[in-house]
Prior knowledge:
Blueprint: H1 3-15, H2 18-25, H3 29-43, E1 48-50, E2 55-57, H4 59-86, E3 91-97, H5 102-113, E4 120-126, H6 131-137, E5 142-147, E6 156-163, E7 165-170, H7 183-188, H8 215-223, E8 229-232, E9 243-248, E10 254-260, H9 267-277
Helix pairs in contact: 1-2, 1-4, 2-3, 5-9
Family: Belongs to the LysR transcriptional regulatory family.
Protein name: LysR family transcriptional regulator
Domain HTH lysR-type: 1-58
Amino acid sequence: xxxxxxxxxxxxxxxxxxxxxxxxxxxxxxxxxxxxxxxxxxxxxxxxxxxxxxxxxxxxxxxxxxxxxxxxxxxxxxxxxxxxxxxxxxxxxxxxxxxxxxxxxxxxxxxxxxxxxxxxxxxxxxxxxxxxxxxxxxxxxxxxxxxxxxxxxxxxxxxxxxxxxxxxxxxxxxxxxxxxxxxxxxxxxxxxxxxxxxxxxxxxxxxxxxxxxxxxxxxxxxxxxxxxxxxxxxxxxxxxxxxxxxxxxxxxxxxxxxxxxxxxxxxxxxxxxxxxxxx
Length: 279
């Protein structure tokens, strides 16, 4: 497969319309159709089903869309890193869930910034399920992940912090005045069910609770009395006014780790990990 063919396929798969995809790519529609037909012929599979009314991805096409996006992103990252190496200005891209690990992240960045030979660190603030894909695609060099919520299978990791969890509730909630609670009490308390977070594929599990993708959404829903949640102590540091954090004694501990691809040979990443684990 050629990179050009993958770009053409991704455009069609995302737009599900040959005319719009051709316009987006700046090529004629017949040329786009021929390129896609040639790709299907070499692979021996149908990627897109076309009719006079619609364009639809096949199961094989859906798989290739995921893989093609990762390949194109990795190629873009490789180009970026190659140029940075030639210009002798390496950078690190660090993926972090928006709103999490604020105090720890600040300490890590300050300590690394004081390290001799430290390079620039670009932050990618992502949603709850995105860091692993950012690493796999090459759009991030290292990520902050949280166990047991995030999968680290196939990644190298170093632990930075282990902490307990708290229930974040409005100030007038029945549990708000307690010094500590158990998970069963949070579930049984009057009010809305726990919020639902997206899984690795980006979709939220079925259930009655509100679907959320970041802490900003979550805290607003809690303030409005539409959600409850148990989350790490560090994530509750910057609670909105009117919310309180109550320790949950039997919630599993949460461990924050730095994660990166095993094949990484980046000296700046190694330096960042070494500095972070020495704090």
